[in-house]
Amino acid sequence: xxxxYDVLGIGNAIMDVIAPVTDAxxxxxxxxxxxxxxxDQPRALTIHTSMRAASTPTEIAGGSAGNTMVGIAKMGxxxxxxxxxxxxxxxxxxxAGFREAGLEFSTVPTESGTSxxxxxxxxxPDGERTMNTFLGASVEFGHEDIKxxxxxxADVIYLEGYLFxxxxxxxxxxxxxxxxxxxxxxVALTLSDSFCVDRxxxxxxxxxxxxxxxxxxxxxxxxxxTGEADFDVSLAKLVRQNIVVCATRSHKGSTIMVGNxxxxxxxxxxxxxxxxxxxxDQYAAGVLAGRAMGLSWSDAxxxxxxxxxxxxxxxxxxxxxxxxxxxxxxxxxxxx
Length: 336
Known about the structure:
By secondary structure, this protein is of the alpha/beta class. It has helices at about 25-30, 40-55, 65-75, 90-100, 150, 165-180, 195-200, 200-210, 220-225, 230-240, 280-290, 295-310; strands at about 5-10, 15-20, 35-40, 60, 80, 105, 115-125, 130-135, 155-160, 185-190, 215-220, 245-250, 255-260, 260-265. The strands form 2 sheets. Strands 6-5-1-9-10-11-12-13-14 form a 9-stranded mixed β-sheet, with helices on both faces. The protein has a 5-stranded mixed β-sheet with strand order 3-8-7-2-4. It is globular.
């Protein structure tokens, strides 16, 4: 069967609502400056409305896996995304935002009445970001959102670990992985967050052992998954399960293990780190896009470093500058 997509991502579809506010705005709404707080639907809608009244927010379709897929599409690689949205204005904007970014997006909105997920990011004059996140309809993702034909049409499916907080999503991930494997496709997983791994370690371990071909994680997430304190011991333990491990290590760069082959990839230097949000997401975008282009694992890893460097040089989790236009490229290789 011919593939239609190089990578298909599955994750939380979340609208990033970014607005400049005063310190008084935070006080009036009882927000702790610089904190990230999960909020319920009434509070989310109240804050969203207040932000719109105070200024003109920038609204960007996002979520971890969604941002990775956008990064992949911006590199000219075929990408699609599955993420649950509500039947509301924000849901319509989420769908439109993903499509405008070059993604195939056909998830049917929920009929439950739950509003679409959104993260209200209040930016005060000192540049501090205060976040109030409502997961909403995104956590209602389940088996009904898995379309066999879509999974079969992707060379790689990419699963977001944050969805593991939902039992229905866990089960849907297994089904999607089984469909992918039966069609001869690859399954990639990002662990997303070490606290998420701590909450669902056994489920993650089962998915990795039986279904995953490519694992993305940072050092903390990797050691949380294996229960080993040492990074290299964790790598060795996972490689024995016959999976490719792509581990980010902050300023140390990243390590990609393919069987007994170890590729230590340097981080790309940037003049000023502005916002580290989305660094791991764009690293995964670079690696997966690079492999789709036919790059070696080492060069794909370096493309991941470039993508991460670009996104941390500005606010926001999406790339703003094409990889080919970056001025801090220092490695001459990157040929398909």
